[in-house]
Q: What sequence folds into this?
């Protein structure tokens, strides 16, 4: 029963799209109702399944899925032409990411009620995007994984270019093509994994049981890791994210920053590092060096920007840098911190973009120098924005604090001077984060209210609901993180076991 | 109902040979406006297609006419691809023979037109069935010569005549190259028959053989629009009538690739590894040049020409794999390519009936005619290879074949080129989806038949790759 429900997670959005085809585009209320109901249904299912995974715990895992501890495991032959299977399952890590996605999709549907243009197509595209993200987090077969991973390109351009604002065509193209560039790097290495693995299988579990040839790993790991890192905007592939996010409509910014950027980090952990741990040990120190840009310079760039979405995009870049710091630490604590940060940042940035979208809908500008005194007219939205900011700068009590401190502890445990230096720099850069968040909140929310904003109103019930739910999630993770880190711990254990078992062969000239 | 010998395998081929004569001959018995030839053509093509499905796959190969005519699994599936292309091409062409807004049809003589398509199809069938160089060459010429005539179908159209002249000149040079290659191959092996050539090639190579191989690849390079022999394609694609362009981009490309498959996995099989660098070079340069060329196009058919040059490059990647994998990949991709390409051409055709065939004519399509815009997006994303559309699975299969012999560098290059391809396909989608409508453009009207075909092809493109029973069956044949 639970397994069927689990498989329904990605089917329901698609069925919703199909069901909406005969409804004429003019009946917007009905369409919105159907999509909201479908998103709520998926959210309900995912929450229930998350509780189930938590309740079952690490015991009684499916033997077939070894070495991973997967629940709701399904394995059906799919495309016999190249041995692809339909393999899905859930452990703590991807279940929590699914829950995050469900929350963000639900919030995304709710905030797009007033989007201009053909709403029928817009909501259909959101649901297809949701399918793609759910699918990525669920699948354990590389072909299936890649199909879902690349599907996003189908929707992203259309959504940004048709429904966005500002330089929407430019932003949409930049985002789509950069992400496609990343996934093409991944695709090139996938073939290598299949043919060099020699097990005639695309299954992540099967491939994790073999040790891939070192010559192959040495070129494939960086290619694949960077391919995934593109979508997580790791330097030097971060350039798409500010333009893309600022041009995108609210819901798409939320989904892109909240869940799609985590797909990259998730792929790095689940596919690249899990399947090629030997090369990971050699290459990850270089990644740490790249992180200096993300973590240290990201906040400074955010400081200089006046556009709210640019500020948030650079803040995302710096927060995602922390995820990679946790991954590159290669300690259990670091990996746990990275996973926690994925989930925490998803909610936090979702809240950020949601409030920004709501404010933009009213003020029609995102330039903070043009705004002021918004708190007087829109106290609810203002408080929502400030809370997102607090979570972002790592105030204890919110999820950001837990995740970031775990990452710092994990990274500092690693016996490498470079990692420690970067960790210290990252800790210091939180000050910069605090500066730009407080400065933005101050300029936007306080001070004199411009004349033209006299008639603005606070959020309606729908918008308040989104803010309340997302803030509740942030607080929940922040106040009782044990519940989530439990689930993460036993899920990451097999991955860490594989990484720590990898012996580092000596190769002259590279790494060491 | 059939006996168990393989002689009934021949029935569809013989029917296909007689069929064009029947269609053209039917004109003698009816007047110019009669629907008779059209009905006969529809019935004939579909009947042959159904008959083909009675040939069970994996039942070995049949050899006929002093073993010069071979019918194997690849041949049967290739026949199906060619027939699908012919049927879709015929349906697409139908609108051009009907009375337009100005009371005159854009093209005349539908019976002869369909006859020419059927001859080209039969030429393709001959290429995949041939077992000796003479039949092989004959097939290639039967496939090409109707195309020359089709290109110049509108006698008074200057662009069309220019395109046809260019095509004939280029094609004749290509033919000369091929004949030269064949003659050297004959000189090397001392036989016209493929199996004897294969034995000779396996027992040792000589410079003579390499000259032959080089010339054969050059010759077919013209027909398959490989770099550096692709230059005629954009002009011919633009000059020819639109339905001819559609047929040209699928049928003649399928025939040319079948030629290479027969050659590389037939007589040249023993030296496949040695000619792999040549294939890889042609594939890599072709897809790169095709993609580069398409970037800056603003006319729809020129754009499709470059896009199909790039597709030829992608198909070449599969030729590096082992025979079985490569053949499956190529068949599957050709099928997917035919469906996606025809979908694009159907949409362009409707645009072309009312407006100029440029990107600018697509402006505001998503607002005026959302279903057409969605179909266009589906076909473009499929050609670009975005999952879950069929194009992705087709390309995946091609790369799978190329990578299975360890050509990771070429596959990586091809995959990265896909980003370039995505850029120009998105460029086209942008015109339809993002740009504001232009008040001066004439509104589009779709007939019921056009709407039905577009919806059916869109569903095919979406479902073909994703649903395993469909995609597996296409590879395993449509056999009942």
A:
């Amino acid at each position: 029963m639970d397994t069927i429900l689990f498989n329904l997670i990605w089917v329901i959005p698609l069925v919703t799209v199909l069901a909406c085809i005969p409804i004429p585009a003019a009946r917007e209320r009905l369409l919105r109702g159907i999509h909201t109901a479908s998103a709520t249904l998926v959210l309900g299912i995912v929450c229930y399944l998350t509780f189930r995974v938590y309740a079952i715990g690490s015991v009684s895992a499916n033997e077939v899925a070894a070495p991973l501890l997967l629940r709701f495991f399904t394995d059906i032959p799919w495309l016999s032409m190249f041995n692809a299977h339909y393999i899905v399952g859930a452990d703590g890590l991807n279940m929590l990411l699914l829950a995050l996605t469900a929350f963000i999709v639900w919030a995304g549907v709710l905030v797009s009620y007033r989007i201009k243009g053909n709403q029928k197509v817009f909501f259909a595209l959101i649901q297809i995007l949701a399918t793609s993200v759910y699918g990525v987090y669920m699948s354990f077969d590389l072909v299936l994984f890649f199909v879902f991973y690349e599907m996003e390109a189908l929707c992203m351009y259309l959504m940004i270019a048709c429904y966005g604002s500002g330089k929407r065509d430019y932003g949409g193209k930049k985002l789509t093509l950069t992400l496609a560039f990343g996934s093409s790097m991944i695709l090139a290495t996938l073939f290598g994994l299949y043919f060099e693995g020699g097990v005639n299988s695309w299954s992540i579990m099967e491939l994790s049981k073999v040790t891939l040839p070192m010559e192959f790993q040495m070129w494939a790991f960086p290619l694949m890791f960077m391919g995934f890192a593109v979508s997580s905007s790791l330097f030097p592939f971060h350039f798409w994210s500010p333009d893309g996010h600022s041009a995108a409509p609210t819901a798409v910014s939320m989904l892109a920053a909240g869940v799609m950027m985590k797909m990259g980090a998730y792929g790095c952990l689940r596919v690249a590092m899990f399947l090629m741990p030997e090369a990971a040990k050699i290459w990850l120190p270089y990644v740490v060096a790249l992180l200096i840009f993300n973590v240290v310079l990201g906040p400074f760039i955010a400081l200089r920007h006046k556009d709210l979405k640019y500020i948030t995009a650079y803040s995302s870049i710096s927060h995602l840098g922390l995820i990679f710091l946790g991954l590159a630490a290669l300690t259990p604590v670091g990996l746990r911190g990275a996973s926690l940060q994925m989930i925490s940042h998803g909610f936090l940035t979702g809240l950020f973009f949601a409030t920004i979208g709501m404010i933009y809908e009213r003020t029609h500008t995102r330039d903070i120098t043009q705004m002021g005194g918004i708190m007087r007219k829109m106290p609810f939205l203002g408080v929502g924005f400030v809370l997102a900011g607090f979570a972002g700068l790592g105030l204890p009590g919110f999820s950001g604090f837990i995740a970031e401190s775990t990452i710092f502890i994990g990274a500092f445990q690693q016996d490498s001077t470079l990692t420690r230096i970067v960790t210290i720099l990252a800790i210091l850069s939180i000050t910069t984060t605090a500066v730009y968040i407080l400065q933005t909140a101050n300029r936007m929310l306080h001070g004199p209210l411009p004349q033209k904003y006299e008639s603005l109103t606070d959020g309606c019930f729908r918008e308040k609901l989104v803010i309340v739910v997302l803030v509740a999630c942030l607080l929940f993770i922040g106040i009782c993180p044990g519940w989530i880190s439990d689930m993460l711990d036993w899920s990451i254990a097999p991955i860490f076991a594989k990484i720590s078992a990898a012996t580092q062969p000596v190769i002259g000239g590279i790494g060491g | 109902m059939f006996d168990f010998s393989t002689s009934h395998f021949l029935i569809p081929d013989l029917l296909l040979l007689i069929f064009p004569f029947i269609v053209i001959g039917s004109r003698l018995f009816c007047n110019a406006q009669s629907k008779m030839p059209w009905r006969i053509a529809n019935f004939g093509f579909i009947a042959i297609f159904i008959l083909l499905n009675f040939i069970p796959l994996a039942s070995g190969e049949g050899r006929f006419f002093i073993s010069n005519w071979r019918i194997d699994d690849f041949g049967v599936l290739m026949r199906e691809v060619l027939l699908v292309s012919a049927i879709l091409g015929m349906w697409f062409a139908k609108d051009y023979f009907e009375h337009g807004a100005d009371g005159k049809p854009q093209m005349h003589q539908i019976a002869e037109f369909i006859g020419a398509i059927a001859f080209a199809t039969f030429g393709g069938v001959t290429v995949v069935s041939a077992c000796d160089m003479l039949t092989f060459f004959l097939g290639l010429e039967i496939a090409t010569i109707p195309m020359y005539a089709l290109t110049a179908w509108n006698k008074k159209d200057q662009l069309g005549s220019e395109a046809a002249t260019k095509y004939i000149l280029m094609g004749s040079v290509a033919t000369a190259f091929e004949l030269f290659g064949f003659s050297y191959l004959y000189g090397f092996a001392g036989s016209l028959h493929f199996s004897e050539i294969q034995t000779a090639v396996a027992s040792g190579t000589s410079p003579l053989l390499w000259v032959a191989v080089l010339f054969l690849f050059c010759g077919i390079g013209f027909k398959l629009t490989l770099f550096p022999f692709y230059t005629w394609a954009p002009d011919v694609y633009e000059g020819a009538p639109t339905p001819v362009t559609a047929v040209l981009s699928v049928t003649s490309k399928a025939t040319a690739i079948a030629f290479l498959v027969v050659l590389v996995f037939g007589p040249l099989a023993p030296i496949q590894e040695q000619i792999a660098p040549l294939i890889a070079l042609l594939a890599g340069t072709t897809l790169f040049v095709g993609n580069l060329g398409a970037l800056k196009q603003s006319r729809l058919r020129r754009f499709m020409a470059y896009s199909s040059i790039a597709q030829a490059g992608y198909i070449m990647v599969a030729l590096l794999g082992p025979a079985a994998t490569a053949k499956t990949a190529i068949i599957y991709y050709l099928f997917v390519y035919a469906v996606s390409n025809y979908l694009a051409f159907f949409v362009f055709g409707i645009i072309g009936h009312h407006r100029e065939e440029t990107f600018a004519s697509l402006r505001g399509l998503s607002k005026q005619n959302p279903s057409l815009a969605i179909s266009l997006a589906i076909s473009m994303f499929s050609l670009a290879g975005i999952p879950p559309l069929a194009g992705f699975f087709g390309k995946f299969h091609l790369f799978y074949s190329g990578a299975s012999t360890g050509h990771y560098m070429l596959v990586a290059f091809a995959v990265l080129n896909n980003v370039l391809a995505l850029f120009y396909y998105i460029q086209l989608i942008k015109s339809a989806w993002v740009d504001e409508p232009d008040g001066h453009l004439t509104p589009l009207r779709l007939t019921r038949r056009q709407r039905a075909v577009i919806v059916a092809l869109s569903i095919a493109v979406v479902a073909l790759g994703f649903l395993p029973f469909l995609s597996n069956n296409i590879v395993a044949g449509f056999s009942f």
Notes: The longest helix of chain B spans residues 158-189.
